[in-house]
Design a protein that fits this description.
The chain has 3 helices and 23 strands. The chain is mainly beta. It has a single domain (11-308), classed as Distorted Sandwich (Beta-galactosidase, Chain A, domain 5). A 9-stranded antiparallel β-sheet has the order 6-7-8-9-23-19-18-13-16. Bound molecules: 6-O-phosphono-alpha-D-glucopyranose (G6P). 6-O-phosphono-alpha-D-glucopyranose binds next to strand 20 and strand 21.
Length: 309
């Protein structure tokens, strides 16, 4: 594709968008000028309650703004918008494994869902003005993941976003799946940022090779932070001095808190010097000891909601 060519939009997606006034199509170069890569089509949502952007690459929400409110999500100015790339920002879905593959570190980090093409299957605006977008991914066993599964992700976008995930084992053998909704929150100040609701809980510190420590007070950010908290049944709150967001859910007991820090961030192509200051990730899902066992033929569901607190 030449540098300026528009990314191709599948006919089925164009037809679905054409049916709904609250949907339109654009592309990453328009919304993220100066970003890297070949470009990706973007689905734009505009309802009385919110505006949002998403891409079928990874089934990823990239932007969410309640009407009259502020942008919730961060996208790196160095994000690589190319088909099949993992996009640095928004809410990527890490699935069917979180972090390195449990037994084979040649496989991609954070699983396969975030770099695959999802299908937008339906769109609907309900009576309360909430827009529901259903995305699906059907995986046939391959060398990267040896089990068949289907994942359905419904984005319910009102004054707040809710993400519903249903994972179905469509094959004949049981498997383990770990996953997270890896939200990049746009923040006002990394110095002021704190994550509350984890005081006294144990966490695996990935910066310290996975050793376990006990959280004391809120999580703050002074250098690289990469922590996994298991079995957290209550909401956690992110406060950046200007905004407070409550991240709650059902069936997503793991909480991951991550900021790359100045030193490591400057060496990552799609972050770059100083850009780590723009985000904090507070992720919810099921990983480490919370990993799902999914018997053949069975399904499990979870959802996460982000509310202004
Ligand atoms: O660079 P990525 O593969 O997108 O991963 C970004 C980050 O995701 C999670 O938050 C992990 O806990 C981190 O260890 C990881 O660095």
């Amino acid at each position: 594709m030449s540098q300026n060519a528009s990314p191709e939009v599948p006919q089925s997606l164009q037809a679905l968008v054409d049916k709904h006034d609250f949907l339109s199509l654009s592309d990453s170069k328009t919304y993220f000028p100066g970003s890297k890569g070949d470009g990706l089509p973007l689905i734009c949502v505009d309802t009385p309650l919110c505006q949002a952007l998403l891409t079928t690459n990874g089934g990823q929400l990239l932007s969410f703004t309640p009407k009259g409110g502020e942008e919730l999500l961060w996208v790196s100015p160095n994000c690589n918008f190319s088909p099949g790339a993992s996009l640095r920002g928004g809410i990527p879905l890490c699935l069917p494994w979180f972090g390195p593959h449990p037994t084979d570190d040649t496989r991609p980090k954070h699983g396969i869902a975030r770099t695959r093409e999802w299908a937008l299957q339906s769109a609907q605006l309900d009576d309360s003005g909430v827009c529901h977008l259903k995305l699906a991914l059907h995986h046939k066993a391959d060398e990267l993941f040896e089990h068949d599964f289907s994942a359905e992700l419904t984005l319910s976008l009102g004054v707040t976003p809710t993400l519903h995930l249903t994972l179905t084992n469509t094959g004949a053998t049981d498997f383990d799946a770990s996953w997270v909704m890896h939200t990049y929150f746009a923040i006002n100040s990394l110095e002021a940022a704190r994550v509350e609701g984890l005081d006294g809980r144990e966490y695996a510190d990935k910066v310290e090779g996975g050793k376990y420590f006990t959280q004391s007070g809120p999580v703050t950010f002074n250098g690289e932070v990469d922590r996994v908290y298991e079995d957290i049944q209550l909401p956690v709150t992110l406060d950046d001095g200007q905004h407070r967001y409550r991240i709650e859910g059902d069936q997503c007991p793991s909480v991951v808190v991550w900021n790359i820090g100045a030193e490591a961030g400057s060496g990552i192509a799609d972050i770059g010097p100083d850009n780590h200051r723009g985000y904090v990730c507070v992720e919810r899902g099921a990983c480490l000891g919370d990993t799902w066992r999914l018997p053949a033929g069975q399904a499990r569901s979870a959802h996460m909601t982000i509310k202004a607190a």
